[in-house]
Fold this protein.
Amino acid sequence: MNALNLSSAAVAITGGARGIGYATARAFVAEGARVFIGDLDADLAKAAAGELGCQGVGLDVRSRESFAEFLAGVEGPLQVLVNNAGIMPAGRYVDELDSVTDSIVDVNLNGVLRGTKLALPEMLRHGSGHIVNVASYLGVVPAAGLATYCATKHAVVGFSESLRDELAGTGVTVTAVLPSAVRTDLVSGVKLGGVLPTVDPAEIADAVVASCRSRPAILAVPGWMRSYEAAAALVPDRLLGAVRGRLTRHRVLQVLDKDARAEYDARIRRDAASPTD
């Protein structure tokens, strides 16, 4: 599959006003692409776009109408769609509000499905395009305290690989990017470091841009994380459980700094309670 020429290419990025989305928009602008960012916080999207020299609008990925309007505003043909918008409430599943559970699924999974279905017809007509779904390494491994989040990311990985196979030979490709822990609001209050690899948003952004050249099925950041899966298959379950306990159960369920995470969690609950239409 040929590399995409990003100079003047139309690139749409969801959740582009902060974190990974913002860094990704900046990376594409540096490549000479015409970037369009959408974010639930419309004012922040416009401010971010002003800083980056691109275009930004409000976008609620939970709404098909909002997503369709966002893509209609892209001065096409659309060549790259980055499904980046996502939320990560943390805590025991049994304590998770139903509205929050529904919101995680609607943003992290349904948002990807909606945006992809809306973008595909134009890409298929032109016989060219690339869809990047920003999943998580927790889309291939489990994490206590993040059950619903993991469920959505596992689904995104499965969807991405299945759709990629379905689109074989059309000129349209799909890549699932699997970041480790990223230093953004999503990990507020979570103790990082130690054996848990952490990366900056710019590293994920570089991987997203690189995927437009090599167009792989899966791209983990850092890349060596893929070796964990092979190693885990050889480790006794009891030992593997102990390792996972240190990686997630201890960090998310026992030593999570709820005060540091309060602002992020409040925003998630507020957005989950807001209407989508």
